[in-house]
Specification:
Distance between the termini: 91 Å
Helix content: 25-40%
CATH superfamily of the largest domain: Cupredoxins -  blue copper proteins
Strand content: 15-25%
Radius of gyration: 32 Å
CATH topology of the largest domain: Immunoglobulin-like
Number of domains: 2
Number of helices: 6
Number of strands: 10
Order of helices and strands: HHHHEEEEEEEEEEHH
Structural class: alpha+beta
């Protein structure tokens, strides 16, 4: 009956009618939604870390890209170490603040202490931070030495930053140079990432020391490939150097990391790591395809300029 649905008794007077007791099921949908939201957040956070890929960024990624070189492996290890250190420091400071607020408030401690100093405490808050800094400095200096001390190279590549593309040459392999421009959206293939794919990739062999000489031809650029752990400025009139040793075959992407003009965001870097045999085959083909004459102008660029003139 309608009065039973309203929780009313048929024999009760209007003044004595009581609403039905709230159902315990009413709050379950809200609790279920809350649990679902929290679970989704946890899964999303875990998945974002797991989605970190080798050589390129991934959607919803929060961690660093997977290491593709020994330098990047050390960078990730040092990053994780510092994350533990700063987390411990934050927790200790938070506990001290809470303890002081609870232990020394006016209600719990009506007669404040008139202590002006304590030698042991002053020594502790001086020695402990110094010890933490020394603990951090040792692996930090070791990592800096690994990055800056360039070992004898197996392959040397010269990367020249231009507005807004990169040119690559192999000084020890012959007189050839080629330009690397971003592929436009309309020309992308299904397996090519947008804003990162180029028409001519820099090619290097796997498990070999690659020295990268970086300079700029017009304004300051920056050569950066996250999975290799390298980032160095390309400055006109100056030759900077860095190095990497790719441990896995594949394509590794990077971008210019110095604001260099209106098309700064469209200046990607693509490094293809191949086996020794594939690299030697590519090298022989590149010497013919990108060979330059005595005027030191790459054939690809000369053809492009002549096409524009026509």
């Amino acid at each position: 009956m309608w009065f039973e649905k309203l929780g009313l008794r048929p024999d009760a007077s209007p003044s004595r009618q009581h609403p039905a007791a709230p159902s315990t099921r009413a709050g379950k949908p809200e609790r279920s939604r809350s649990i679902a939201c929290v679970s989704a957040l946890v899964v999303l956070t875990a998945a974002s870390v797991a989605l970190a890929a080798l050589g390129h960024p991934t959607p919803w990624q929060t961690g660093l890209q997977d290491a593709g070189s020994p330098v990047m492996e050390n960078i990730i290890w040092f990053h994780n170490l510092l994350l533990i250190v700063i987390t411990l420091i934050t927790v200790v400071v938070l506990v001290l603040l809470v303890w002081v607020m609870v232990r020394f408030n006016q209600r719990a401690h009506p007669a404040p202490s008139r202590t002006t100093h304590r030698t042991s405490l002053e020594v502790a808050w001086t020695v402990i931070p110094i010890a933490i800094l020394v603990f951090i400095a040792v692996p930090s200096f070791r990592l800096l030495f690994l990055e800056q001390n360039i070992p004898p190279a197996d392959v040397t590549v010269k990367a020249t930053g231009k507005q807004w593309y990169w040119s690559y040459g192999y000084p020890d392999q012959g007189k050839f140079e080629f330009d690397s421009l971003m592929i436009q959206d309309k020309d992308l293939k299904p397996d090519q990432p947008r804003l990162l794919s180029v028409d001519n990739e820099m090619v290097v062999p796997v498990d070999k020391i690659v020295r990268v000489q970086v300079t700029g031809s017009d304004v300051i650029h920056s050569f950066a490939v996250p999975s290799f752990g390298i980032k160095i400025d390309a400055i006109p009139g100056r030759l900077n150097e860095t190095w990497f040793k790719a441990t896995k075959e594949g394509i590794y992407y990077g971008q210019c990391s110095e604001l260099c003009g209106k098309n700064h965001a469209f200046m990607p870097i693509a490094v293809r790591v191949v086996s020794d045999s594939d690299f030697n085959a590519w090298l022989e083909d590149a010497k013919k395809k990108y060979a330059r004459g005595d005027d030191s102008l790459p054939r690809a660029l000369a053809a492009r300029e002549s096409a524009k003139a026509e």
